[in-house]
Amino acid sequence: MDPVTVTVLARVGGPLLSRAGLAGSKRYTRGFRTSRAASSSARTQGMAVSAKTIRQWINRRDNAHLLSLGTEKSLLDAADRLAYIAPGNDATERKENALKLLSIIIYEVIRASSPGDAIALSTALQQARIGDEGERTRASIESARSSLESRFNANDDFDNSTRTLNNWRREEAVTLRDAWPSIATVVREVTQRKFDRGELLAQWASHQPAWYAGAPAAVHGWLGRLAADYDEHEAAFSFYESAISNGIYPRGYWQAIASFALGGLDEQRAKDYALQTSENHPLLDALKAAHQEEWATALNYLDRWQPEKLANQAIKRTFEARLLHAAGQNTRAINVAIACAKEYETAGSNILAAELLLMRATQGETEHNLADSQSARSHAMLAVHARRSWFGDSVEPLVLAIKSALAAGAGTQAWSLCQATPQGEAWQHELDDQRLKEQAALTAAVNGLYATAQTLLEDVDNEFSRVHIEALIMEGSSSRSENIAEVQAQWRSAWSLAQSDGQRITAAMGIAESGGELPDLTELMKVAPKVIEEIQLVSRVLRSPGDTLAALKANALKSRVLVIKLAERHSAGGDDVAAAKAIKAGADHWNDPNLMSMAAHKFAEAGNTDDVRETATTALNLGGKGWDGAKHMYALLVQVEFDDGKTDKAVEAARSLLSLDSHDKNARWALVKALFLRGQVFEAWKILSYHGDPITPRDRDEAKTWLWLGSHYSEDPDFIGKTIALMRDWPNDEEMLGIFIQTLNFGLRGDQISISAEDREMVASVTRGYLERFPDSDLLRTVEPGPDDDPLVNMAPLIRAGYEHSQQFADIQRPVMEGKFPIGMLAAPTGKSLTELSLRRVARHVYAIDLSTIADEVGAVGTAQDNSVIIDPTAVHTLALLAGVGVEQLIGGVSSLLTTDQLFRDALQAQESVGISAEVTIGWDEEAEKPKVYVEAPGEGALRAGRSAQIVQIMESMARVPRRELKCMPELRHQNIAWLTGLDYAIEHEMIYWSDDRAMRYLARDRGVPSFGTYALLEYLKQAGSITHEEHVIMSAELLRNEYFDFPFSSHVFEAAAVADSWQARGAAQALTLPSSWSQAPNAVAFVIKALSHVSQNPVEVTNWTAAVSVGLIRATPEDSTASNNLEILLRQLMGQSWFGRELLPHVLTGIRAGVAEREGVADPVESVFTGLYQSLVRRNGHQHASAVLIGIFSLTADQDKALAARIILTARD
């Protein structure tokens, strides 16, 4: 094909490349055909570029993408990339050659896709040359098109038939068809069959068909190669002889190939045949030398052969590897075999590489036995897939792959290779093969599946294999000490039946391990000296006189077998730790990941979790990428981290485990559980439903997780139906069924789940069924409504029982209400989370501030600038309250902030609970002794739900650490511990604790943990200049509005809070009831008078403000007389205000008397104050006027106060 410009290629080749070329190129360009054809065409144009180089270039995804675009720009970019591999003396020449090479590659890519596309491209390029260069005539274009079309149409059936042949045979058939078209008939007859092609070829060899006599010698040779592909060596030899007798050239080469065929039948016969020939050819000469064991000579002869055909190059490299191995140069042999397999990708070269690698791995010739075993398996599986593609003998490499997997310690993978698809990887015709039956039984026995091995043994015909497998079953199915003599006898039987060196080595090791007397191993020593030396060592140690423990310890690091024997001795004595250490020592000695894996499992049995982590991690590092034991190690790490409560590490291990196999349900569930425990619930749902439908739960815990996640995140319209179907897995489990039904009735979140009328009826039906089966369920039960005048009467026993239960914890509740105990202490009695207790203000107020410790707390904030801080939900609740005014400044005020997984889940639980809480609740009225309906203020529930969502959102952005159990406060482990996990972690790791429950801070300081509250943080930030005075006031006022106590009085803060509350008697008023607000009594009273002036038109607020200040004055004044005097002063000050009038007196008096009622011994100031007032009026205006005024002032008061006024008038003295 002549080169054309990129413009032409883009215009005419682009559409074809986009439509067909690269759509199919991924399949075809990976083979040899396109790259070899392109390489051949390039050579004809003076460019020496190997087929391998071209194949590698095309197979790069970026290059393939550029070709598939087919634009002028993309092809120019492709040409630039080709310039790196194109030959040339300088950049200009390489660029020109790259353009030529690009046109060749595009032509061959499309030609390999379909004849039609090849014709289209050929025609289009010819036309383009006319238009662009004027070098062709339309007649020549038509001639070229017709020629191509005729050829490719005729080739359609032939090409399709050859696709199921070995690649070499396919290429040879294509070449032979030009000289002998009848080969199409031969190919069709062969490829119409699958697994009996060899039988057909053998029949043709002995009973030649009619077409055979007219076939050229090359066809006879091709038939010989084809017969060899299907292991019909006698037939292959017959075809080769026929080809030679018919004059095939070169004769010596074909005689060597014929000798190779005989080698598959009889080595002596092959030797005799080769040595009797008189022809000369480097391959034949090398073969003759090899038969005489003159390895160096053979290699020299072979080096003289420089074949051009790729098939012959592969033969040369394969033979070279075998010669090197025979000469004892095993490393070179392996390198040559691997290179050959990589270059030519043939089944034979991959099998040879696998055999040599496995031999080196198992004969003690390398320290990298794992890598060799894994590589051997990879090469063997490449051969399996290759032979399957042309219906060759795939069992041979499959058995080799299984042996390699076992050598690598990948027992599970080896077993999978023995099983039928889709659970396993074996095809049915392979399973029917006696070789795979033997290997499957052996693999089952090695994996400890003794019952399975015994069953499979029934289909094993080979006597040695039967005895070998039976010996393994005898060793593993009972204590060896019980049947040691039988085991030894079984291995001796295996030795007597062994037919090969490999079988004899296996039997000898079995005899040695069982403590039997070894047979003569002199001949085997010549074959595998290192292996035999190890067998003799094992035998000598295990047969040493007396107790073998000392001998095992002395020699353990000389043999992996002895390491295991030593560990078994320790385990038998009940010392699993010593057993694990023995195995670990061996693993360290040989850098063996499989031994390290065994040590990890043994440490797990001993309960040494730290050692499990160390050894499992080391095993993973030693095994590296692709190690089959990685799955077991990650699974072990997941379990250990779960058991140890380190769910963050469990998540990491579970992710790694799942990355090995995305369809591993155990790994997926492990990751889901770990994420769920960490509170990463949405991510847990994504993992659970990664493949579409969430994976099915297998036990109660998984079902609960599945249900929670699905009820919150599923968008499946059939979710309710699937949930009801899942309930059938627990038909008699009252608790599980109750949880399902509770969720279906009350637990579906969001609008994503569409509930149809049919769904509602299904839910109602299963609910009725549950209530009928379990009428006394604690989770769900039916209560019929009472009569209209008392509809709650039937609920009274349940409500009263709940009330009486709560009273059992009154001795805890009272100190909590007084701010003396942490509110978390109510978590266990109430069943609520710490976050929900904080949201519901169970202590009525937030006891967050202790002025006596504020200096220490500010100091703790200073320390937090360089240290990590643990925060609990009470402080996060505060941050949520301040979300609109300065939360970023507060979070940024500490160096590093973190919380625990348990506290985050505590917040999630609160969000869940407050989200479903009704604004109407039913409680017990102790005075009326009956149920009572309580109704929240409108919007209170929505506000609480919003706050809970803010808390979760803030905590989601924090670093989190797992804390499944208390380590530093073991005496509190019986508690509902989530609320204590933050403090416990701070104690262990010497961190600083941030909480807005001052009782928790008391506990922290008692345990030596520096702690602070948000108020102290505000003080620190103000002192440090990080926030302004105004910001400090705004944030403090926000806390005061939300009843954070004990705030010191500040006119700015209290007034800002009152203004924000429209001067209603809320947070600021409540703060005035506390002594801490009265350190500046005159200022506090002035603030109250100002507040009352703003609400003087609202009698209720007047009462509330007056009551707050009255109670505060009493609490702040220990002496009763002084307290009483303070109330008198307050009342006089209020009466002297311009806004005060008789209409407010009843409300002011009510507020004043709230203070009187606060403490016994405090006198009511009303009579004293108004007696003084009356006397003053009398002195100025006389009794008549004074009495009229006093009666007028009390005209709107209660009767008892009117009576008080009358008594003042009647008892007054002049």
TrEMBL record:
Domain annotation PIN: ranges: 870-1005
UniProt superkingdom: Bacteria
Name this protein carries in UniProt: PIN domain-containing protein
Origin organism lineage: Bacteria, Bacillati, Actinomycetota, Actinomycetes, Kitasatosporales
